[in-house]
Amino acid sequence: MKNLKTVVLSNQEISPGYYRMRILAPDYTRLAKAGQFIMFRVQRSLLPLLRRPFGIFRTGFMPADCETMPPKEFIEIIYKVVGGGTEIMRELHHGDSVEILGPLGNGFEFGEPGEEKVLVGGGIGLVPLYMLAEKLVEESRVRLYMGGRTRDDIITVTEFERLGVRTHVSTEDGSVGDTGLVTVGLEKKLQEGGKMTVYACGPMPMIEAVEKICRRYGVPLQVSLEALMACGVGACLGCVVKGAGHSDSTPSYLCTCKVGPVFDAKKLDWGNSPEQSVGNCGGCQ
Amino acid sequence: MKNLKTVVLSNQEISPGYYRMRILAPDYTRLAKAGQFIMFRVQRSLLPLLRRPFGIFRTGFMPADCETMPPKEFIEIIYKVVGGGTEIMRELHHGDSVEILGPLGNGFEFGEPGEEKVLVGGGIGLVPLYMLAEKLVEESRVRLYMGGRTRDDIITVTEFERLGVRTHVSTEDGSVGDTGLVTVGLEKKLQEGGKMTVYACGPMPMIEAVEKICRRYGVPLQVSLEALMACGVGACLGCVVKGAGHSDSTPSYLCTCKVGPVFDAKKLDWGNSPEQSVGNCGGCQ
Amino acid sequence: MIKRKDKIIRPKMEVEIAGIKLRNPIMPASGTFGYGEEFAPYLDLNSLGAIVTKGLSLNAKAGNRTPRICETVSGMLNAIGLQNVGVDVFIKHKMPFLEQFDTPVIVNFFGNTQDEYAEVAARLDGVPGVAALEMNISCPNVKHGGIVFGTDPKAIHEVVSQVRKKTSKPLIVKLTPNVTDIQVTARAAEEAGADALSLINTLTGMAVDVKTRKPRLANTIGGLSGPAIRPVAVRLVHQVVQAVSVPVIGMGGITRAVDALEFLIVGAKAVQVGTANFVDPTAMSTILDELEEFCLTEGIEDINDIIGSLVV
Amino acid sequence: MIKRKDKIIRPKMEVEIAGIKLRNPIMPASGTFGYGEEFAPYLDLNSLGAIVTKGLSLNAKAGNRTPRICETVSGMLNAIGLQNVGVDVFIKHKMPFLEQFDTPVIVNFFGNTQDEYAEVAARLDGVPGVAALEMNISCPNVKHGGIVFGTDPKAIHEVVSQVRKKTSKPLIVKLTPNVTDIQVTARAAEEAGADALSLINTLTGMAVDVKTRKPRLANTIGGLSGPAIRPVAVRLVHQVVQAVSVPVIGMGGITRAVDALEFLIVGAKAVQVGTANFVDPTAMSTILDELEEFCLTEGIEDINDIIGSLVV
Ligand SMILES: Cc1cc2nc3c(=O)[nH]c(=O)nc-3n(C[C@H](O)[C@H](O)[C@H](O)COP(=O)(O)OP(=O)(O)OC[C@H]3O[C@@H](n4cnc5c(N)ncnc54)[C@H](O)[C@@H]3O)c2cc1C
Ligand SMILES: Cc1cc2nc3c(=O)[nH]c(=O)nc-3n(C[C@H](O)[C@H](O)[C@H](O)COP(=O)(O)OP(=O)(O)OC[C@H]3O[C@@H](n4cnc5c(N)ncnc54)[C@H](O)[C@@H]3O)c2cc1C
Ligand SMILES: Cc1cc2nc3c(=O)[nH]c(=O)nc-3n(C[C@H](O)[C@H](O)[C@H](O)COP(=O)(O)O)c2cc1C
Ligand SMILES: Cc1cc2nc3c(=O)[nH]c(=O)nc-3n(C[C@H](O)[C@H](O)[C@H](O)COP(=O)(O)O)c2cc1C
Ligand code: FES
Ligand code: FES
User: Fold this and answer.
1) Any idea which fold A2-104 has?
2) Do residues A104 and A41 touch, judged by C-beta distance below 8 A?
3) Nearest in space to D32 (alpha carbons), one of B93, A236, A267
4) Which one of B88, C229, C232, D180 has the largest count of C-beta atoms within 10 Å of its C-beta?
5) Distance between CA atoms of C285 and C211, rounded to whole angstroms?
6) Beta-carbon separation of D312 and C220 below 8 A
7) What is the CATH number of the domain that holds C244?
8) Residue-averaged pLDDT of chain B
9) Dist. CA A199 → ligand 5 center (Å)
10) What pTM, to 2 d.p., does this model score?
C-alpha cells in the first residue's frame, strides 16, 4: 500500500468505449492480489477532485528500453468511459504522469484445490477475475460465464481462454454467444451438481441474480462489489454496504474498500435491494 | 466580436518562460485592430474557470494543407507563463481545441502621419505594439524602446527591426543592450524635441514613469493597460481603472475591456498610485 | 413518450412566473449580463426566457475600489460594489435598446435605505417594457447598520411591504444564502407581498494573496459565485420551494443544462445563469439547446413536467 | 532575514493552542483521517502537529443509508451520518495505537442530547494521551428539535457550559458555517468556556441525479467540503478571529501550503486538512514540505510571524 507517482506506458481502446491502460508499477507483481484495486488520480487538478477506483486486471513485466536495465513491472487496468474522470483518462498517452494508490482492499479466497471454479463476469466486471483465473487454473478446472449487453461489452475473453479457462459468452442482444442473461448458463451448470465455488463481478442486478442461484444450490459464492469511494483506505466511510444481519435497529455497515471489495456472499445482507449506487460496472449503464 | 471554437496551429517557447501560440482564426485579419485582445478559454473545464485575456500580437495567412484550399487565417499571441492558466496553455499542441472571444476592446489611434512614433515596451508588454508598428511604419518613422529585467525578457525585437523600426534595448541586469530602465532612453529622445506620439505597454511602474516623462515634455501618450478581467465584454465591471478627474466624491471608473485596453493618457487618473492589480505584464513578476 | 421515429415534436418550454409568460425557463442573473446590449453580439436576446439587468439604485453608483474580482477554485469572488448608471439613466438610455426585443425585461434594483428601495420601485413602476422587478435585498455589499438587509426577517418584511405599495408590477425578491434558516427569510418576503422569490445571491467569501498578505479584493470580502457553490444553491432552493407557495427562480453555478435541471427538479420554475456568461457569452444558448435535447431523449413533452419532480 | 548563503536555518514551526504545544500547525480534520491508523502506511504520524480522530458518540453509531458521498465541482458532499465505534471502544481499542506516537491526539465528539455530550466528555476526561477535546456542535446531521445545535447561540452556550464542567482537558468547539452571523455563535462558545474554536464544518448542500431525479445522497442533504468552499471558510475564520480572543483553528478546502497560509494570515493559529486526505493520503506531508519551503523563500524564521499578519 503506497501512493505511487508514475507514468502511463500505454492506453488503448480495446472495444468501443473500453480502454486498457498499462501503468509502470514497481513492486505490484509481488504485492497485488487477485481482486484488489487501485485509486487512480486522473490528473494533478482539483477537478475531478477524487480519485477513481479501478480493479487490477493483471500485473506483469516488460523489457526495459535498454538491455542492461532490469525489466519493467507494470499493472493493467481496463476501464469503461462513463463520465468526467474516464473521459479524461482516455486522453492519456505513453509517458503522462499519473498517481496510483494501492494495491487496496481484500482479494479473493482461492477455495479448495481441485474443485471446479466458476467465474461469472458482467461487462467491465470481468476485470478482477483475470488475476483470479491465473491463480485458479494452477490447481482447478476453471469455467467463465461472461455476459454483456452487446458484443462490444465482451472483452478479453480470449485471454481467459489462453489460460485454459472454458468460456461461455452470452449477450442480451445475441450479437455474440448465447442470447440472454449470463445467469442462464450458470444455473444450468449448477443444476449439474458437483463441488464448486462461484466468483462473480458485474452489475448489481447480475450479482443479485447470481447470489439467488448460488443460495438455491448451496454453492459458496464470492462477489466483488463496487461502491462510491472517496478515500479507498477506510477513512471516509462513504463506501459501505450492508453486512449480514443488518437491520435498522442493529445496523451493520462494511467498508467496500477495506473489508471488500471481495466479500463472501454469506457475510452480506441480501434481504433488501442494495442501497449503494454501485457506479457503472458492466452493462448496467 | 464572436466566440470562435478553433484549434491551435503551433505553440512554441521563444524565450525561457515565453511562448508564442498560433491559432486558426478566420476573419481576424480583417477584424482585428492594433491594440485589441482576445479572451482565451484554456480548456473546456471549470478549472480554471475564467478566460484569460491576451493581446493580439499579429494576424496573418499561412498556406492551407492542400493546394486547392484558400490560405488559412491565423492570429498569434505571445504569453508569459505566470500561473495556473498559462501553465496549462504551455502544454497545448497543434490541433488542440481552444475557444477565443474577440477581437475585443479599443485599439490604438494612429496619430498624425509623418510625425515620429515612439513605442515603449516592457517585457510581455511588447505584444500589442507589433501590429501598431506594422501600421505606423507605413507613414511614419518608428522607434522602439524595449526593456526587460534580463535578456530573456527581450522578445521579438528583430521582428520589429524587420519592419524598419529603429530599436533600443535595455535590461535591468545589462545582459543585453543598455543597463537600466527603458525610460532612460525615452527621456533622452524626448529631450531632443520634435513632434511625436508615444505608445506604451508594460508593467504599471514603467507606464507611470513613461506618463510622467511624457507629461513633462508635453508629448501625447497612449497606454495599453492590463486589468483583472472576468468577461472581457463590459458586463462584470471587474476591470475598471480610474478615469481623469476621479475622486471619492465624483468617482469615475472606466472598463479596461471596453473603453480600453488602450487609453489616451489624458483620460486617466494618474494622481494616486493605480489601484488595479495589473496582472503580470512584463518583467514586473 | 415522444415518437422519435415520427416527426420530432419539440418539447414545450414555456413557463409562467407571477403572471409573466416566459418562452423558456432560462434567463441571465443580474450583474452578469450588463444591460443586455453587451451580449447582443453573441446571443439572440429573443431566444431567452427573460432578460435581467444589472442592479439599479436611485442615483448612479461608482462601485468599489479595485481589485474587484478574483478567481477561486471553480468559482470567483466579486466586490463590484453595485456600480450602475442609476434608475433614470437606465430608463432613458438602456430601456429603448431592450424594448426592441420580444423578451420580458426583469429589472433588478436595490437601495441603501427603505425609502430608496421604494423610490426606485416607484420610478420603474410606470415604465412600459419592464415586465417585473427583482429586488436585491441580499447583496453583501449593501449594509444597513452593519448588517445585510436580507438576513433579518423583520427588515425584509418592512422593506418588501414598502416596495409592494409602490409597484403594480410583479415583484421578485432575491434572497441571500448567508442566513441560518432561509425558510424564515423566504416566508418573510412572501408574506410581505413578493410574487416570486429568486435565489441564491452570492455566498460571502474572501481570498488572500499569501505573498503580499493582502486580501485579493480591495473590499476584503466579496461574493462567491460559480460552479463551486451549486450544491449550496440547490439545497437552498429545495428548502425555499418547500416553505413558500409563490414561484421560485433558482440560480447558483449553472453552466450546463444538467445544472439547470437540478434546480428545476427540486422545484424552481425558472433559472438564472450568472458567472457562466463571463466564461462563455454564448452559454445560455448552449444550455437551451442541451435542455431541448435532454427533453427529447428523456421523452419529456413539457418542461413543466420536470419542475418539482424530485423523487425522495 | 534568513541568510541562505550560510547554513540554512529551518524555520520554527511550533505553535501553541490552549496550552498544547504542536510541532507545526498542520493536523487532519475530524472524519477525514479515521482513527489515524488508516493513514499510518502513507504518512509519518510523528510529523503532524496533532492527530484529530473521527467524531465519537456515547454508543457506536451505524450512520446513514447509502449513497453517502457524491463528488461535486471541486468538492464533495457527504452524509456519512457520523458512523463511529463509540467512545468506549475508541478508548479501549483505538487509543493504544495512537499513544505510540509522540503527537497530541485531539478527540472529536458529539452527542444527540446535552447530557450525551457531557457524558462523552466525562468519559474522555481521564484518558491519558488525549491532549484535547474537539466538540462538534455543527454537524448538519445532528438535529435537535429540527434545528442544528450549533446555529443557536443559547443552545451553544448551554451545551458548551455543561461539557466544560465535565472536562479539565482543553476544549475546542467546532463551529458550523451555516449561520447568519458567526461572530455571535463564536462568542457564545467562548463565553461558555471554550479554550479554542475550530471552523469550518461543512456547508449544507445537495445534488440531484437528473436522470433518476433522486438526490445523490440517500439523506437528500449533506455537507459540502473541499477546495470549492475555501473562500467561504477563509472569510468566516477572518470574522471569528476578530470576534474572540481564544485561538482559532481554521479549515475548509486546504490542499496546499498556500491554502493553509490564507488561514494563518487571517489569524488561525493552526489549520486542519480534510477532504484533501482522501484525494491524496500523503497530502499533509506535502503541505508541511511546502510550508517550510515558503518560509525559507520568504525569509520567515517563525511561523508565528505569519499568523494574523493580514495587511488591510
Ligand atoms: C473497487 C472498484 C473497482 C472498480 N473497477 C473498475 C474497473 O476495473 N473498470 C471500470 O471501468 N470501472 C471500475 N469501477 C468503477 C469506476 O470506478 C467508475 O466507473 C469510475 O469511477 C467512473 O468515473 P467517471 O469520472 O468517469 O464517472 P463520474 O462522472 O464520476 O460518474 C459516472 C458514474 O460512475 C459512478 N462513479 C463515480 N465515481 C465512482 C467511484 N469513486 N466509485 C464507483 N463508482 C463511481 C457514478 O455513480 C456515476 O454513475 C470500479 C469501482 C470500484 C469501487
Ligand atoms: C488586455 C490584456 C492583454 C494582455 N495581454 C497579454 C499578453 O499578450 N501576453 C501575456 O503574457 N499576458 C497578457 N496579459 C496578462 C494575462 O492575461 C495574464 O498573465 C494571465 O491571465 C495569467 O493567467 P494565469 O492563469 O497563468 O495566472 P493566474 O494564476 O490566474 O495569476 C497569475 C497572475 O496573473 C494575473 N492575472 C490572472 N488573471 C488575469 C486576468 N484575467 N487579467 C489580467 N491579469 C490576470 C494575476 O493578478 C496574478 O498575479 C494581458 C492582460 C490583459 C488584461
Ligand atoms: C460580477 C457579479 C455582479 C453581480 N451583480 C449583481 C447585482 O447587481 N444584483 C444582484 O441581485 N445580483 C448580482 N450578482 C449575483 C448574481 O446575480 C447571482 O445571484 C450569483 O452570481 C450566483 O449565480 P452564478 O453562480 O450563476 O453566478 C452578481 C454576481 C456577479 C458574479
Ligand atoms: C467524509 C467526511 C466526514 C466528516 N466527519 C466529521 C466528523 O465526524 N466530525 C466533525 O467535526 N467534522 C467532520 N467532517 C468535517 C471536516 O472535519 C471538515 O470540517 C470539513 O470537511 C471541511 O474541511 P475540508 O474542506 O478540508 O474537508 C467530515 C467531513 C467529511 C468530508
Ligand atoms: S472509500 Fe473511504 S472508507 Fe471506503
Ligand atoms: S472584464 Fe468584465 S467588464 Fe471588463
Assistant:
1) Elongation Factor Tu (Ef-tu); domain 3 (2.40.30)
2) no
3) A236
4) C229
5) 40
6) yes
7) 3.20.20.70
8) 91
9) 23
10) 0.95
